[in-house]
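[step 3/7] inverse_fold.run input=structure_tokens len=583
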């Protein structure tokens, strides 16, 4: 974790072989198992479960309610301070702070999946919904603590490798959770498939038991000196503050998840079902729904800040405790990065801007003339393999060149890879060209994503690891979501301008030799000629690369102002040799 000690000097760069050996270390192998355990429950509580519910004859409206369980992953930053501060009785003394929390969270996931396996959606739908929420809450808690252990158990040079190993395990789990339960349900039953999924969580348990114990965990003290205990007043104050926290969490989580279902359900419960349906529709409308989502994030965050704010001129224990738990991690970050904190936050939020605006890729491939099968084969099979290669290369770059230099390389990767789609727009439905474009884009995205994860990990401070990383990872995509809401509008307005002639119209000649199937539905779908729609896509990809320059500039500014650190050993290591205490 970065402390910006000006007295430290950069160590010599390790060789490529030394950087590669990081992937064979015990921590990386354990991170693979923990990543698998982290990815498994995420898909099982809604996507895979929805197939079981549909086969049981439930309506789509009922099934969609189960998506509310996934809000726990969007709201996990709210109980991350609890994970940082609270010890698990008996287990913490024996396993350490992080491993004890991991084990409890994994046990809760296993028990929840086991109980789901014994359920019947037709007879016990309400109970299954509660169990889905339990599994989601436990899974989100597991994510919090795995991220914290990964950060605390690795030196700076290992952050990239452990981030890569985590992503490999997570992606493998997504494939397993999306396919194996369906196969088992076809051959045996849904109950058997979920029993098998519960048993697969033992992979994560084995990872926890085999993981090295982190160094002595620091719990930052909350100063209650001079604040008298007032039990009679504190209970109603706690209730009022926690009510505000819950309300803020629901609004904030709805914004982060991009779903207003829980708000619509709440309105329906008070007799305003029509208003709830209108809100849910507006929430997902294009292009303006994303502004409602971002507004909800700000409003929900405001309610949570209000809930934690001390009463002016009257110190109370609930006010002191909540304000310290919420505000101290932010104060710590701005203190440690005084002068660069705002730049760093801007870099985190804008680093992958060029990637986030590419939310119209499937329509683009279809407009080019590719079939759904071709798109699925290239994106979901070849694309996943290339993404995992990019993840590996990102981890290697962090180990070989250091965080800041790897971040600079990743800052160029996204915008440059977007230009490959401008080339694809001129090629039509060429399958080799599609392989090239998706391969380059996925390698670049995997590389940049791993560098960003490693960099955000390095920014956390002792005692606030879980909270600070949960905040970074929850908010880094918000600006991208705002711009992405306008992607389709940009393509079609540019195509309309090209149709009208002028400078943009001159580019239509680039598409004169394309086969007839390329952009064949342009007039019907967008009201322009095929060449004009192609021009719209071409200029959109140039624009998407251009906005990535913001991330490049910020990366250079941060690299110039943030002093690079010498590679630090992982906690529990000395002189580069792993010191792994038993148990």
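[step 3/7] decode complete -> sequence:
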């Amino acid at each position: 974790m970065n402390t910006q000690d000006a007295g430290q000097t950069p160590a010599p760069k390790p060789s490529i072989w030394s950087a590669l050996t990081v992937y064979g270390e015990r921590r990386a192998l354990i991170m693979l198992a923990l990543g698998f355990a982290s990815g498994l429950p995420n898909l099982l509580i809604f996507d895979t479960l929805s197939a079981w519910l549909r086969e049981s004859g439930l309506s789509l409206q009922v099934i969609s309610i189960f998506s509310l369980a996934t809000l726990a992953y969007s709201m996990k930053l709210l109980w991350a301070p609890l994970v940082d501060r609270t010890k698990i009785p008996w287990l913490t003394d024996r396993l350490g702070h992080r491993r004890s929390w991991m084990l409890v969270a994994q046990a809760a996931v296993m028990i929840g999946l086991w109980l789901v396996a014994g359920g019947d959606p037709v007879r016990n739908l309400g109970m299954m919904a509660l169990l889905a929420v339990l599994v989601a809450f436990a899974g989100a808690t597991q994510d919090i603590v795995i991220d914290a252990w990964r950060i605390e158990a690795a030196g700076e040079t290992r952050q990239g490798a452990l981030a890569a190993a985590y992503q490999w395990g997570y992606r493998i789990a997504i494939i397993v959770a999306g396919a194996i339960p369906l196969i088992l349900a076809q051959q045996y039953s849904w109950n058997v498939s979920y029993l098998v999924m519960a048993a697969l969580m033992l992979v994560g348990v084995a990872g926890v038991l085999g993981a090295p114990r982190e160094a002595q965990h620091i719990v930052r003290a909350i100063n209650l000196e001079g604040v008298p205990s007032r039990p009679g007043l504190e209970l109603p104050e706690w209730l009022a503050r926690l009510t505000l926290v819950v309300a803020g969490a629901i609004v904030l989580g709805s914004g982060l998840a991009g779903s207003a279902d829980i708000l619509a359900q709440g309105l329906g419960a008070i007799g305003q079902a029509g208003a709830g349906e209108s809100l849910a529709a507006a929430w997902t409308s294009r292009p303006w729904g994303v502004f409602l989502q971002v507004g909800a994030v700000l409003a929900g965050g405001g309610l949570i800040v209000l809930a934690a704010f001390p009463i002016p001129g009257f110190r109370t224990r609930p006010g002191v405790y909540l304000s310290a738990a919420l505000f101290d991690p932010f104060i710590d970050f701005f203190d440690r990065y005084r002068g660069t904190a705002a730049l760093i936050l801007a870099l985190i939020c804008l680093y992958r801007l060029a990637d986030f605006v590419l939310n119209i890729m499937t329509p683009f491939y279809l407009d080019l003339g590719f079939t759904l099968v071709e798109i699925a084969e290239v994106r979901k099979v070849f694309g996943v393999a290339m993404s995992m290669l990019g993840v590996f290369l990102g981890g290697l770059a962090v180990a070989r060149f250091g965080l800041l230099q790897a971040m600079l390389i990743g800052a160029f990767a996204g915008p440059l890879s977007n230009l490959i789609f401008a080339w694809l727009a001129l090629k039509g439905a060429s399958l080799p060209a599609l392989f090239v474009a998706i391969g380059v884009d996925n390698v670049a995205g995997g590389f940049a994503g791993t560098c960003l994860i490693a960099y955000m990990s390095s920014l956390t401070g002792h005692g606030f690891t879980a909270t600070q990383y949960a905040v970074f990872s929850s908010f880094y995509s918000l600006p991208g979501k705002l711009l992405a809401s306008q992607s389709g509008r940009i393509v079609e307005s540019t195509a309309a301008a090209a149709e009208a002639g002028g400078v943009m119209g001159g580019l239509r000649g680039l598409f004169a030799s394309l086969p007839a199937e390329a952009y064949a539905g342009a007039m019907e779908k967008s009201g322009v000629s095929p060449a004009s729609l192609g021009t719209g896509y071409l200029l959109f990809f140039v624009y998407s690369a251009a906005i990535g320059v913001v991330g490049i500039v910020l990366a250079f500014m941060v690299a110039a102002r943030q002093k690079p650190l010498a590679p630090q050993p992982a906690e529990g290591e000395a002189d580069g040799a792993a010191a792994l205490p038993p148990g």
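[step 4/7] annotate
Residues 3-9, 565-583 have pLDDT under 50 and may be disordered.
The radius of gyration is 25 Å.
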